[in-house]
Amino acid sequence: MSVTLREKAAMLLPRILTRLVAAALSLSAIGTAAAADVAFPPADRQIDYQLGGAYKPADGVGIVVRDRLAAPAAGKYNVCYVNAFQTQPSEASWWLKTHPDLLARKNGTHIVDPDWPDEYLLDTSSAKKRDALLAIVGPWIDRCAKDGFNAIEPDNLDSWTRSQSILSRDGNIAFATQLAERAHANGLAIAQKNASDLAPIGRSRIGFDFAVAEECQVWSECEDYIAIYGARVYEIEYADTRKDANGKPVEPTDVYKAACAARGGKISIIYRDRALKPAGSPGYVYKAC
């Protein structure tokens, strides 16, 4: 009996679909396994935030955050800081010289963070530019893994709020998702940093595993993070805080004490000098509850 091409296609189609489904499930399983292999930071350990320079952590510290160019702390859970949405002050001239097209601009002028005028905003406005940024930031993440870090902290997720409407929430979400995928592919956990309004989708959609929350007591954001990440929220309050979110004068020690009273039994909370100076330096401040 002769079989037409149409009949052959009809017979082969179920087999093709079955194989495609099996392949999709296999890829899904690989992704799930990769995420499962990531070691999350311990929820019950004290953190130290050492971006101003590396130094020996105090007794009781189990988690250390250091700049991506620093070495991890021996015997600790190490988080690699990556300024993934803005330029580092020391690297601003390199970006301007080699990748000016990847810096957000308005009316021909590059946009800077108003609080950090030597930090230019990276341009996450299109898929093409996000891919180009990943070609730069991705290897930084790879190096964090190679150097022995356990996680990354990509800073300035909320850069779109300072972009004079040039950048968008969705563009930053898309780039953050790419960063999470790169981190997990390297066996690294990844922190949500900033943009507490994104916490509800931080884990489920973007892929964040924990949160580093600067001044969440001041901005009344701590519970937003805790609702998603539980005890894996690591809070930093600063010794030079002088106003709350409404502009009301405050004493920084009062802010820290209020944070400890509210959540000290649930998450790691520390009190640091704004410059995050190394221990022994003039102006160094470190307390924990």
Automatic annotation (TrEMBL):
<feature type="signal peptide">
    <location>
        <begin position="1"/>
        <end position="35"/>
    </location>
</feature>
<protein>
    <recommendedName>
        <fullName>Glycoside-hydrolase family GH114 TIM-barrel domain-containing protein</fullName>
    </recommendedName>
</protein>
<dbReference type="InterPro" id="IPR004352">
    <property type="entry name" value="GH114_TIM-barrel"/>
</dbReference>
<feature type="domain" description="Glycoside-hydrolase family GH114 TIM-barrel">
    <location>
        <begin position="48"/>
        <end position="277"/>
    </location>
</feature>
<dbReference type="InterPro" id="IPR017853">
    <property type="entry name" value="GH"/>
</dbReference>
<keyword id="KW-0732">Signal</keyword>
<dbReference type="InterPro" id="IPR013785">
    <property type="entry name" value="Aldolase_TIM"/>
</dbReference>
<dbReference type="Pfam" id="PF03537">
    <property type="entry name" value="Glyco_hydro_114"/>
</dbReference>
